[in-house]
Specification:
The structure is a homodimer of 378-residue chains. By secondary structure, the first copy, chain A, is an alpha/beta fold. In chain A, 35% of the residues lie in helices and 18% in strands. A nine-stranded mixed β-sheet of chain A has the order 3-2-4-7-1-8-11-10-9, with helices on both faces. In chain A, strands 5-6 form a two-stranded antiparallel sheet. In chain A, helix 6 crosses helix 9. The first copy, chain A, is globular. In chain A, 63% of the residues are buried. At the A-B interface, helix 2, strand 3 and helix 3 of A face helix 2, strand 3 and helix 3 of B.
């Protein structure tokens, strides 16, 4: 049975410590359930909730306040891919006929946990013992690309500039001010070569999607494929940087199952936790040839009006990256794009969209999880 | 496709702060995979990992060290029912033909988080604002039973005495010393009427099971039914205490699907986080009539040699309750019992076993989740 997205919803994104995780979740769920226009008694029949650092029970607290009680609720965690993992499990449940209508919710409140600065790795990990935070981890990847001449500093910074140009049209984005190259390159250094404007911020938010089988409603968005892979091994002798191999393999499998190629994809939401993440993701997905993502970005092709729109929501950098919510925020953006409901950031004539989310990457594993889904109509 | 448990494994249980969560997980997985005697290349094809307070990525770290890489890994959380939630998702995946062989792992290390004392509720919950910890929550339930004359203090304490008599025969149990009624009743008061020996301890541990379709191996244990329900609403006007309704409804559905009655069940592992939990669980499952569980326990019927064996592993009270690991530790015990491999605590001729796990219970919801599974051969 093929799955469709009936409806999506999100909260606003940004630091909002005064709003509880349950309230954020409520905002996303009420919008998604309303958008899905479920018949009375039409579900959801089960709920998957993605959250990374949320307290146990956050899912039930949220759903309780909505009167969604007495159905199976399962919280899932796959680091930054937790939201898309919830979506992936919901899609699988519908495709297999396990449940009819399933709600996928992602929710995260980081600002009450981390007032400022990076989320620290576990001291029990080799990375943790070395102080290798996520910014440092991505900085090593960026350094390798720079050393190989595969990207230039200005091209890295151009990712943040481009995303800021989209985000001014996203009223729910965390950062809604256009920034220029000088500002990005001149901002405070976090982990060389990544300046602060090349790193995602501490953010709070929630996003949700209602998924079910084809019910004959044109507005519903077909799921062409959803693929989840976990952690291939990686070490420094690999030809490519961490994450590249996972994204490459996962996307190839998704294209095969959906029977589409990257050139059929009109709009992409990918995992740009740091500017280098977008460059690596673009090349691994096949949006740009090896070493070509930076030039494509600097030429404006991934930005407003360009030929290869990437992260029209503003992405993790500008829309925000509340870990467990991110994947479903990406799904929501693609659904809005495919329905032509994306306002000032609308990609004209978008018919097929792609979401890519990476989770983690610890102890020599390429990724805790990579989830890639294709949505739309061929 | 019906599912079977091919193999199970656990770590030892107790405070072991010097052993990392990944190492505990490794001990359980290596035993379960060996016990399952998988053919080379025979899987697992996917992994579900239950953990409540584990750091993101604990699953991948554990599996990485075993060379289980490149298959989907999904962490699930459902409070104290996280381990059985992982099992439930694994069983469903096999039954639906989504994956062939699936590993379910539960792992938790509490001693490095909580040196002593209870795990505190979230200050964002109504319970949290009231200081209503889990011991206090269960104490209210116990007080109601006492006030109604539905149980006597000595009968509550008899649960702990009984479980200690089993646990002396479980070399992996956290507490392996037989205790008597006077000692239980005279121990330090935690939340009236629950003394410290009526409360589970801070514990570390892991447990795992390998699940797949019928492969014609007699030693494999059939899954007759697995049912997961989430949080019905509860308030003080309900005739029964919190958890009772969830356990009752979930078990009725499990009996229906498995086509067995409680009288067909030879051995039970149930969620005795506190002595009163076992009393409530017994009555909700139908092991004893309303108001009859205490007398049955005091008469020795649930203990060694009794007619209604409950928690032969020692249960959460004596074997230990490392949250995410508990459900799979219960599964492991039932598998050992049904195979006749339970040593000095073996229930003679056990053919059908039941596991019941309760997770959470916050903000007026009866339970985050209740999972009940029936295993064995009719």
């Amino acid at each position: 049975m093929s799955a469709r997205v009936y409806g999506v919803g999100t909260s606003a994104f940004g630091r909002q410590p005064e709003t509880s995780a349950a309230e954020l979740g409520w905002q996303a769920v009420i919008e998604a359930v309303t958008d899905a226009a479920l018949e009375p008694g039409g579900g959801p029949d089960a709920v998957y909730v993605g959250s990374v650092l949320g307290a146990p029970g956050v899912a039930q607290r949220t759903l309780h306040s909505l009167g969604i009680v007495g159905v199976p609720v399962i919280a899932v965690e796959n680091a930054c891919a937790s939201g898309t993992t919830a979506y992936h499990e919901a899609v699988a449940a519908v495709e297999l006929g396990r449940y009819r209508t399933v709600l996928a919710l992602g929710v995260e409140q980081l600002s009450t946990l981390y007032g400022a600065g990076a989320i620290l790795p576990e001291p029990s990990d080799p990375e943790g013992r070395a102080g290798l935070t996520q910014p440092a981890h991505y900085a090593l990847t960026a350094s390798r690309y720079l050393a190989q001449g595969r990207v230039r500093p200005e091209e890295l910074a151009a990712v943040a500039v481009k995303s800021s140009r989209y985000a001014v049209h996203n009223p729910r984005a965390q950062h809604r001010r256009e920034i220029d190259l000088d500002r990005v390159l001149g901002s405070r250094m976090i982990a060389d070569p990544l300046t602060v404007l090349q790193c995602c911020s501490i953010s709070d938010g929630a996003a949700a999607a209602v998924i079910g089988p084809d019910r004959g409603v044109d507005r519903d968005v077909p799921v062409l494929a959803s693929v989840l892979t976990s952690g291939a091994l990686w070490d420094y002798r690999d030809e490519e940087v961490p994450a590249f191999g996972s994204i490459r393999a996962t996307s190839q499998e998704a294209y095969r199952r959906a029977r589409v190629g990257i050139d059929d994809v009109d709009v992409v939401e990918l995992h740009d936790a740091f500017t280098i993440g977008e460059i690596v993701g673009m090349e691994a997905l096949g949006l740009a040839p090896r070493g070509g993502a930076g030039a494509l970005t600097a030429a404006g092709e991934t930005g407003p009006g360009g030929s290869r729109p990437v992260n029209p929501s503003g992405g993790l950098l500008a829309r925000g990256h509340p870990l467990g919510a991110t994947g479903l925020a990406q799904i929501a953006e693609i659904v809005w794009q495919l329905r032509g409901e994306a306002g000032g950031r609308q990609v004209d004539g978008a018919r097929i969209g792609l979401v890519e989310t990476m989770g983690g990457g610890v102890s020599g594993i390429d990724a805790n999880a990579c989830v890639i889904t294709l949505l739309g109509s061929r």
